[in-house]
């Protein structure tokens, strides 16, 4: 389980404005609980996220499935201010509007 603070992009190699989208990966940042490699209440950054089902509250990396318990309020505010949010951001906001909890760090 993870209290998700945010999803963050990272790049393989050095960033430049011409970096193709397939070289950008997303990671969850947050505190985990019941993780086999960490204690409870430990802040981690996951490996690259392969899929997220915001309605179900699940995020999948190559080796783990994380249950998303809540999302950081400030991250949700940030997402709401994106002028033309992509499908993933729209799904996150719909899940929050449908009851996915928000917490403050």
Task: Describe it.
The protein has 105 residues and is α/β, with parallel strands linked by helices. The protein has one domain. It has helices at residues 73-80, 87-97; strands at 2-11, 24-32, 42-45, 49-53, 58-61, 65-72, 102-103. Strands 1, 2, 3, 4, 5, 6 and 7 form a 7-stranded mixed sheet that branches. The longest helix has 11 residues, at 87-97. It is globular and about 40 Å long. It starts with a strand and ends with a strand. The model has no long low-confidence stretch (mean pLDDT 81).
Distinctive features:
105 residues, alpha/beta, seven-stranded mixed sheet, 7 strands, globular
The outline comes out as globular
The low-pLDDT segments are none
Number of helices: 2
Number of strands: 7
Mean pLDDT: 81
Q: N- to C-terminal separation? A: 16 Å
| Quaternary organisation | single chain
Task: Report the structural category.
Answer: alpha/beta
The main pleated sheet reads as: 7 strands, mixed
Gyration radius from CA atoms, angstroms: 14 Å
Give the proportion of residues in helices. Answer: 10-25%
Q: Beta-sheet strand percentage?
A: 35-45%
Tally of structural domains: 1
Order of helices and strands: EEEEEEHHE
């Amino acid at each position: 389980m993870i209290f998700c603070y945010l999803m963050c992009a990272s790049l393989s190699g050095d960033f430049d404005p011409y970096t193709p989208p397939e070289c950008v990966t997303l990671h969850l940042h947050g505190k985990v609980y019941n993780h086999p490699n960490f204690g409870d209440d430990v802040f981690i950054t996951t490996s690259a996220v392969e899929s997220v089902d915001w309605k179900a509250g699940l995020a999948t990396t190559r080796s783990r499935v994380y249950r998303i318990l809540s999302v950081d309020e400030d991250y949700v505010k940030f997402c709401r201010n994106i002028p033309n949010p992509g499908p993933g951001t729209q799904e996150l906001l719909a899940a929050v509007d449908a009851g996915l909890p928000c917490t403050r760090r």
